[in-house]
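[worker-b] picked up task from shared queue
[worker-b] task type: protein-ligand structure
[worker-b] ligand name resolved to guanosine-5'-triphosphate; SMILES cross-checked against name lookup, match
[worker-b] sequence length check passed
[worker-b] input payload:
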Amino acid sequence: MSRGEDGEQADDGPQDPDSKKLAPIERKPRLLLMGLKRYAKITGVRYLVEANEDKCRSGKSSISNVVFRKMPPQDTLFLPTTTAILKESMHTFMDFQVWDLPGQIDYLDPNFDPDSIFGGVGAMVWVLDAVDNYMEPIGRLTETILHLQDSYPFIKFTVFIHKIDSIADDSREDVIRDIMQRITDDLYDAGLENPPINYYGTSIYDHSIFEGFSRVMQGLVPQLPIFENLLNTIKDRCHFEKLYLYDVYSKVYIASDTTPIAGSAYELGSDFIDLIVDLSEVHGWHRGNTQDSKMKAQQIYIEECGFEADFTQPVDPEVQLAESQVINFKGHHLYLREINV
Ligand SMILES: Nc1nc2c(ncn2[C@@H]2O[C@H](COP(=O)(O)OP(=O)(O)OP(=O)(O)O)[C@@H](O)[C@H]2O)c(=O)[nH]1
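[worker-b] inference finished, payload out:
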């Protein structure tokens, strides 16, 4: 995945007033990161809250920077507050945009043109600070969902219960359950039963943010069932335990086979990618169209998959595709194969 040059770029949102009704798969999908900055509302005690400002910012920009710009998590401590909409353009197997909305924008104001932001949105991620008092953000979230669901029925809502690392292990499940229950109850009271919202406990200090983002992105991939079927077939034919299709740059996974397994194989795969990317800089081997390299590649397939692959197609010597297998990486046997899109 490569990032667009345009930190702040031209909008390619809808021009046609009816276009917001189109399913996002028909256009370049947009993903919104939203959350509430508390001090924006507590004007009377602003100086008090500002003294502790970091606790009042839910972590949207940190997420965007860690996942899409490879910023080390600890560096997010120094991020300035977002004052304008930050737009990231991502190019991977499909193009999409991530918009980071400043917490203080009042998009429910009747004078505000909602189409300029919500038109063409495929997914909305509400980043809720699990450590802060979450009552006010929950109120704002339910208000937003109720406001948007009729006009923009294709938006998929997800809540990141964020900064989960700051909560003791044995209380995490309780906090997540409490937040989910409150949102469900609030929406139920407003007449919305069984709202289609996904929840993930996330932190920029571990893999959870990448897993959460992966699930959101998968909701924007129209070909997801096709990818899953393909991965299921490869998995069965090659006797893999679990198979993921990763975007190497962001380590977001676009699809996986559909077999549930215990533990987080995603985390393992993600560490493996880091290792291979680092190692390949130093030890990568050039796979030309030689009999030798063909034999070598074939041998890997035979060892790994138990069947003979067809390597009779010429390999473009200009194209360097990574391939690696590791035996006993944290107790597992891993195989990585780069594909081009
Ligand atoms: N402990 C912990 N802190 C986090 C996490 N994510 C973000 N933070 C911290 O939260 C603070 C605020 O993060 P921002 O990303 O600037 O928050 P924001 O929601 O974008 O705020 P605005 O830019 O003002 O809209 C920073 O000090 C981050 O280091 C997390 O997962 N865990």
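[worker-b] attaching auto-annotations
[worker-b] Residues 1-26, 39-55, 304-317 have pLDDT under 50 and may be disordered.
[worker-b] releasing lock
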